[in-house]
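Justification of computing resources. Each target in the renewal requires a structure prediction run like the one illustrated here; the chain below, 369 residues long, is used simply to show the kind of job we budget for.
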Amino acid sequence: MALEQAGFDVQRAAGFGAKRHMLVARLAPRWPVRRHLPQMPYLGTLQWLARVHMAPCAARALGVLQLAVDDTEAAAMASACRALGLPAAYARYVDPRAASALAGLALRRGGLWVARGHAIDAGAFTRALLAAAGERVRVHCGVDVRQLVAEADGWVAQWDGGSLRAPVTVLANALDVPDLAPMPRVALRAVRGRLSLLAGAPLPPLRCALAGDGYRVSGTDNGAAAVGSTYELELPGKPGFDDDPQRAHEGNLARLRRLLGATPEVRIMGLFDALRCVSQDRLPLAGAVPADPPQPMPGAQLADLPRRAGRYCLTALGSRGLTLAPLMAELVAAQIEGEPSPLERDLLAVVDPARFALQRLRRGRYRRR
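Resulting structure tokens:
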């Protein structure tokens, strides 16, 4: 959508999931700059939601209650809200009594109440964005791009039986980005996440979405809910891999108990199983794809590092894809157009795909591959 609004004619190879996501603000006034990034795009994503037409069940503004894990975190949340002086309509700290009233059930701790927090069907959101873009975005389904070939006037995406030419390419294919655009010192990894899908009855009714040590968000079918999520580093074919769904359910139900402060009776309906794409510092990669720098480059800055002309990426959004993607997309579009960045310089540096190569150069340990 960011590229379409910038006036580009976009051709897109399809590939998106159907997980139900939560959109919620996060506060961290005393954390280092790299930790401020997740709280910035929240309002921008709300603006994107306002631009598209979606069924009420696909984007529900039911509010999100981010519960404190313990009393120390509760005190930190309250202190953050006071220090920032945020409008209550954005986020405010609520004590256990107020939190219980908002959720409609008794809770042991308070937390951060985000009144404009949403539960969003990611697949429906993607389809709505494509519909809003109209003919400026063309989706090519069922293709597996195997190679990007550089030409004098741009790039050629090739797959079995077809190809596309464009002056600019944006790679947003998660873990497969390095296959088409190798980047120096970038290491992406898959982290498995499994959600337990629970029947609405006999779960206690809930007026909002809950987050904290895990999360619970209700669907639209008789109060059915998704609870989770696991964070599994062991993947199929690797030592320690455990594919037992019961273990995933046990972990997710333990998270639910900690959120609710009780052991509810539940009826398991199924499991949502997917992979997150995570970088080595758990922050996104968004911007121009770096090339191998020449040596030596003493005192190099990010602006000094060479880039691959006309090639950009947006990946490694981890567990915050819905919140981060709109702002990161606008950043990439601004770079392509040569417009001012929507991020300040410090935050731009922490999402730059060349940051890992720069770190190695500064330590004097960089070797060309």
